[in-house]
Specification:
- With about 160 residues, the chain is α+β, with helices and mostly antiparallel strands.
- Helix content is about 45%, strand content about 20%.
- The protein folds into two domains: about 120 residues, Reverse transcriptase/Diguanylate cyclase domain (Alpha-Beta Plaits, 2-Layer Sandwich); about 35 residues, no CATH class.
- A five-stranded mixed β-sheet has the order 2-3-1-4-5.
- The longest helix has 23 residues.
């Protein structure tokens, strides 16, 4: 099963635009319903396809789905009124990392953690199921202090 983290892009900004451009409440109400209904449809599809919705509120949904259904699940994320960024991973943490990468790359993107693992952590991991066991240590405080001595002539303090 894969974890999929989805977050609406610039929803607050789009809402603000509607508030200031609207002559009445209808535009804001319509936009709210669009987001709510879109996520509800995605959640319904996930459950109907033996997935599990872990979180669904605001402009976010987090779910688990079989790897075989991933492409079909991603097709469910299309909307005419707003874009989303998507992070995919073998664990919750990986999906969250991938979502953050998708957002930082300009939004409206789908990022699988496996594609960016080495960019983030500088390692390749053969078995993604071991991710929760692997403890990635950067440098210890002593190594950081020593490195500071070499590059700046000053030690780093905590």
């Amino acid at each position: 099963m894969l974890y999929v983290a989805v977050d609406g892009d610039d929803i607050g900004q789009l809402l603000t635009q509607r508030i200031y451009k609207a002559d009445n409440d209808c535009e804001v109400t319509w936009f709210s319903a669009l987001i709510t209904d879109t996520l509800a449809e995605i959640a319904k599809w996930v459950v109907q396809n033996q997935g599990e919705v872990l979180f669904c509120t605001g402009d976010n949904i987090l779910f688990r789905i079989s790897e075989a259904l991933l492409d079909a699940a991603l097709c469910q994320l299309k909307s005419d009124g707003f874009t989303v960024s998507v992070g995919i991973g073998w664990t919750l943490k990986e999906a969250h990392w991938a979502l953050n990468v998708a957002k930082s790359l300009g939004k409206a993107r789908i990022v699988h953690f496996d594609e960016v693992r080495s960019d983030i952590f500088g390692i390749e991991q053969a078995n993604p199921k071991l991710n929760d066991i692997v403890i990635l240590k950067s440098e210890t405080a002593e190594e950081c202090a020593h490195q500071g001595d070499e590059t700046t002539g000053k030690g780093m303090t905590a």
